[in-house]
Amino acid sequence: MKTRSNTILLLNLSEAETQLVKQLPSPFEIETVSLSVGAIKNIIKTFPEKKICLIIYHIEENRKRQHRAIQLIRDLVGALVPILLLVPTQKSGEIKKCIRAGADDFMELPLNENRFSISCLVLLEMGQAITRQPLQKPLVDDGKTAASGVDLNRVVNYLQAGLSYFAPKSLIQKKRPEYISNKWQKVKKLGYGGFGVVWLVKDIRSDRLAVAKVPHSPQMNIRVLRSAAILKRLDHHPNIVHLLEIVKDRGKFILIQEYVEGLSLQQLMEHPISPQDKENYLQQLLSVISYSHKHKIMHRDIKPENIIISKTGQLKLLDFGIARDLSWQTAGGISEGTVNFMPPEQFEGQSCIASDVWALGVILYIFATNTVPYVQQNDQYPMDIETTVESRAPSKINPLVPSCLERIIMTCLQKDLAKRYSNATKLLDDLVTTFPDFGLGESATTSLGYGLMETPRRHSVQANWRVEKNGGAFGIMPAHA
């Protein structure tokens, strides 16, 4: 029996664009086929052995109603094959129509080669995964088998009605398992937020546990793909929660990520943490953020809830949902993030790499004092917040904090970007210079842990604060001020 070949269909691509596709790394042998839109139907009928994993369509500049062509392509290849659009500038106004017609992602021309390669790789891996059938065929959520289409719910209900005369209901009414993409069985809900629902899932073939991030609606698909592309770029760092695959289920793109058994840093901070452990966590966190910044990626939501510590002490950074890859994206003009970890410029929608440094400074401040610089409660309207007070010096809360560590913390929390560390690498370099044994696990007085000694119990992370209005904006003041 002849093996079906993995195929990428290239529609109207230039020679340079075609060469970029041919250079994509893949564990599978990939065939590229260049053709026109009108020839897709013929190639599907003539070469059924071709397994189409991805379609890349360079939109024609002089063709009207491009969405009609995309609808045709989608009808021919089915609902699951990824479609990527290359969009000339003069056609950018048609992007929304094209996405509604069935396209999955788009890139405006001229191409950013780095982004093109990463995004193609994400979609290609998804397309290849679609054709790998599981060893068993579970029920899909509408109660029918993928093979026969028989309504098994009706059959089961009929049998249960008869069994109810002989057995207690508790023995026969079992909740039917739910599946994602007929491969990942939902085990339990882990969380719920603005992005969507997070599930603990299990691979039905291997029993491997993973985490599925399911967006609220297909309208968030582009955002999911952007997050996947960023995770792919950072995949080689050990402190990133790795992306296992991306699947399409009921029109939604779902991220499947590794499952890390452990507690969040927020949960750990509810109990005393040794200075040595604090230093270890900080070293790992700075390592992954520095790596991210070197790749021009800013996280924008660094906080203890997004940091998991495994049972072995390994730190994993989560949630790149609002991250930005500055090698091809702008910082964006929207104020997003967690307000108690956001610097002034992020409130104004002017995030930059140094905005992450502020969040790192807040975490370092907590490690040194067991409290935050200041708190506000207006989470829903961060654009209405103006941080009108300066952060208190850590030594005013914990007199054991040495002046050299205080200098580093306060440099992270400078409102003036010119005075703040411009990225995590410069912060890390200063820490290593100031504390030569930082990150080496030493107990010598030259290590950072010396400045992170246990602080009095009365200083909690959730300190008492009030929010004051000042000149039409909300300022943040300590309650005892």
Structure description:
It contains 14 helices and 18 strands. The chain has helices at about 15-20, 40-45, 65-75, 95-100, 115-130, 150-165, 170, 220-235, 265-270, 275-295, 345, 355-370, 405-410, 425-435; strands at about 5-10, 30-35, 50-60, 85, 105-110, 180, 185-190, 195-205, 210-215, 245-250, 250-260, 260-265, 295-300, 305-310, 315, 325, 465-470, 475-480. The relative contact order is 0.07. Helix 13 (about 405-410) runs antiparallel to helix 14. Residues about 135-155, about 160-165 and about 455-480 have low confidence and may be disordered. The chain has 4 domains: about 5-130, Rossmann fold, CATH 3.40.50; about 140-175, no CATH class; about 180-260, Phosphorylase Kinase, domain 1 (2-Layer Sandwich); about 260-480, Transferase(Phosphotransferase) domain 1 (Transferase(Phosphotransferase), domain 1), CATH 1.10.510.10. The chain has a 6-stranded antiparallel β-sheet with strand order 6-7-8-9-11-10. Strands 2-1-3-4-5 form a 5-stranded parallel β-sheet. By secondary structure, the protein is of the alpha+beta class.
Helix and strand layout, with pairings?
Elements (H helix, E strand, L loop, with lengths): L4 E7 L3 H8 L7 E6 L4 H7 L3 E9 L7 H12 L5 E5 L7 H7 L3 E4 L4 H18 L21 H12 L5 H4 L6 E2 L3 E9 L3 E8 L5 E7 L5 H13 L9 E7 L2 E7 L3 E3 H4 L6 H20 L2 E2 L8 E4 L4 E3 L6 E2 L18 H4 L5 H17 L33 H10 L11 H11 L30 E6 L2 E6 L3
Which terms summarize this structure?
single chain; 481 residues; alpha+beta; Rossmann fold; Phosphorylase Kinase, domain 1; 6-stranded antiparallel sheet; 5-stranded parallel sheet; 18 strands; 31% helix; elongated
